[in-house]
């Protein structure tokens, strides 16, 4: 996924959005710092850069600001490109699966994975389910993930979904924001295997309340 300025990020997932007047739209969800509101979004489709939609929501206020760390960006997909997207996520075997948003705080040391645009599939563990960040414009929580054999994320992976499995269901916990942690950014050598992530459940609740819209996510089997 590419922005107008050619910088890239990752798709978290796609889903249906029900607007305040009941209209259903297909949307892309990614991290808020990946896109600015009203920005056009492009993707490589069959070897060509294609404009696929516009960012209709992003409270991004610049790097290392509360909204850029903890909120989502929403891209409305153009109707003629909807067939290029699906509302599933990939498991560790790269098979498309139904999923839902985790509504509970993840346990420490839960095993997770992500598929990013830069580093592809990586696995890790949750080291801090709720890491508190305090800044001039507020206090919120992020999740810290540690890569198991290499860094969990690289530049360009921002926006990718952090996923875990519980029983037969796959759950989306959070979205990649950046390497290290908010108190070590840019990361030093000791923290490069870590990344901090925006907790999806609370970010989606803020979006739905502000926009008076509803995101419809598929349910696990």
TrEMBL record:
InterPro entries on file: Peptidase_S1_PA (IPR009003), Peptidase_S1_PA_chymotrypsin (IPR043504)
Source organism, top-level taxon: Eukaryota
SUPFAM superfamilies in UniProt: Trypsin-like serine proteases (SSF50494)
Name of the protein in question: Serine protease
Source lineage: Eukaryota, Metazoa, Spiralia, Lophotrochozoa, Mollusca
């Amino acid at each position: 996924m590419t922005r107008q300025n050619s910088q890239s990020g990752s798709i978290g997932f796609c889903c249906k959005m029900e607007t305040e007047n009941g209209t259903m739209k297909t949307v892309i969800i990614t991290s808020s710092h990946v896109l600015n509101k009203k920005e056009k979004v492009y993707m490589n489709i069959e070897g060509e850069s294609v404009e696929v939609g516009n960012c209709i929501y992003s409270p991004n206020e610049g790097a290392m600001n509360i909204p850029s760390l903890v909120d989502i960006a929403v891209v409305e997909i153009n109707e003629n490109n909807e067939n290029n997207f699906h509302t599933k996520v990939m498991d560790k075997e790269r098979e498309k699966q139904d999923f839902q948003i985790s509504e509970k705080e993840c346990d420490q040391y839960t095993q997770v994975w992500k598929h990013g645009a830069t580093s592809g599939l990586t696995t890790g563990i949750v080291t801090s389910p709720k890491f508190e960040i305090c800044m001039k414009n507020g206090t919120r929580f992020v999740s810290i993930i540690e890569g198991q054999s290499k860094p969990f994320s690289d530049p360009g992976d921002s926006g990718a979904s952090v996923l875990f499995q519980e029983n037969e269901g796959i759950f989306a916990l959070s979205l990649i924001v950046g390497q290290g942690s908010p108190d070590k950014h840019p990361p030093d050598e000791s923290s490069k295997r870590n990344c901090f992530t925006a907790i999806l459940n609370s970010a989606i609740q803020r979006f739905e309340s502000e926009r008076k819209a509803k995101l419809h996510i598929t349910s696990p089997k």
